[in-house]
Write a structure and sequence with these properties.
160 residues, alpha+beta, five-stranded antiparallel sheet, 6 helices
Length: 160
Amino acid sequence: MKRIAILFILCVFVLVSCGKAEPKTNYKTDISVDSISSKIIENAKDVLLTEADENYVALNVPIETSLAEDFVIYISTTANANLIGVFKAASEENAEKLLTQSNEYLQTLEDNWMSDYLPEELPKIQNAVCQKFGIYVTFIVLDDAPRDNAIKDVENMLKK
């Protein structure tokens, strides 16, 4: 009888946990990083950004870009912390690694920010968002409203 009671309790826990599982969102895999970055930049209307070349990325961005089929990083052309990165990973596993490395990169930026130099820009880095949408990974360092709008737009663009 005790075994039946334990089995019943285990079944209840399994059923309860199954009911709470959130549905997995499916994302497209055929959108170019240029389309995604354009959507982000569109939200950052008056922000001046330029695409970082391979040398800049190799020297300043500690992310294994070889994990991505394609990527683009935009940096500020003026004295501010604005920064955008978009990666299309070669696999889901690589996307997870890119997400981890992107979060570490943003944390390094925050940890090493010179508080005497542009202290008003530090909150952008502290509130930066790094997200994974299937095989895509983005990081966005912008003011709150353009960042939040860009995240929504990118997610809508990539949802199946």
